[in-house]
Amino acid sequence: MSLVERTEVPPTTELGHVHFVGIGGAGMSGIARVLLRQGVPVSGSDAREGPALPELRAAGATVHVGHTAENLGDADTLVVSSAIRDDNPELAAARERGLRVLPRAAALGGLLLSRRGVTVAGTHGKTTTSSMLTVILRELGADPGYVIGGTLTATGTGAEAGTGEVMVVEADESDGSFLLLSPAVSVITNIEADHLDNHAGLAEIRALFAQFAARTTELIVVSADDPETVALTADLHHPTADVVTFGRSASADYVVDDVRAEGFATRFTLRAPDGERVDCRVEAAGEHNALNAAAAVATAHRLGHDLEAAARAAAAFTGSGRRMEPKGGGRGVRVYDSYAHHPTEVAADLRAVRAALDSTGADTAGGERHPRVLVVFQPHLFSRTRAFAAEFAAALALADTALVLPIYPAREDPIPGVDARLITDGPDTDGRVLGHLERETVAKRVAELARPGDVVLTMGAGDVTELGPDIAAALNEA
Predict the structure, then answer these.
(1) Which pLDDT score, from 0 to 100, does residue 1 have?
(2) Distances (CA, A) of 444 to 380, 424, 473, 477
(3) What's this model's pTM, rounded to 2 decimal places?
């Protein structure tokens, strides 16, 4: 029996006291925050203190650091993230007591039951696209609820209940649990092989997205550029939902054209199905972010908002946490943090930064580019590193220098023979990808390498994000 078949998605009014195991995670803390605003009693625990926990306590949640059975208290429902293992004491105690146990996606699905749910899915870009759409709808006065996988710079949080009819949520395909969502509107940015620790391959992932699209009731907004989404659209015969496409392709309903970098911002034009053309500008670098913005503007338009007003509203987007997030700098060197943890994402961010620098007059002297792009990359998961080592090496070679840290294991146990050397010792690194480094030495090493004008990126889905401030401090000490 599949996860969807064996999991109930109850309305939030039936949950009683909800306890979250792993409450500090971006997705879990967001759901908890919305439930608190709806008057639902919330408690939770996490392995360590993190930035989300004080905010949740201030909002009324009882939050513990560390996992023990006693943390459950008088909970009626337990919500667990995919990172929680079966031997977790709180999960074991909840099952012993016969409590309702829900995966995170089922709790998220419950939030959509009383709202006009708009879900954003895709292998890449879903956090940024859902953030952009949220900002646009807020600027247009729609006051949406939202639960996204990063902190929205405009609001300082990744989730709010909102008062409008729309609830924007980021849909996670990593374990197939997005099939517990039943949205009115779905956005699908792209489909690529990833999370191969959970999925057998691209064919299985493609089938999951087809099932996800079939669960949408009103509107599906999908890329006209990505080969997998194009195939999905061709095979999709939905009885009720309209299908609308966006992209660079001339066949798209919403055509993206004239994409150009303006420093770390991007400007482009968008042509609607009726021929109306609007100019768009977003504070995000790269063509991939122009496409993310196009998806958000097109969705707002199809939700009933004026196209030109939606395009203007996109300019209010100022970023989301860990998506090329500024982390300071020193000595004329800027430091940014990127969540990129798949080769396609790494390459897209590096091309975007190079285009941003070139648009501001970067030069080449003596055969060496200046300013340069320096990367500190932390591979995420042993399984992902094994599957994409060569692709990571090729992507990182787009930087002028890339320093590769040991693998961040997250939920996985080590796999014999799999370590960062699969990336750094490959044949295609072109001498630019350096490994065998420990995180304690990285900040000093970057400070030694960097020159005024350079850009430093910390990249990965693990705790590499914590190095940005350390690098900025080392730059100022050097």
Answers:
(1) 42
(2) 23, 20, 9, 9
(3) 0.94
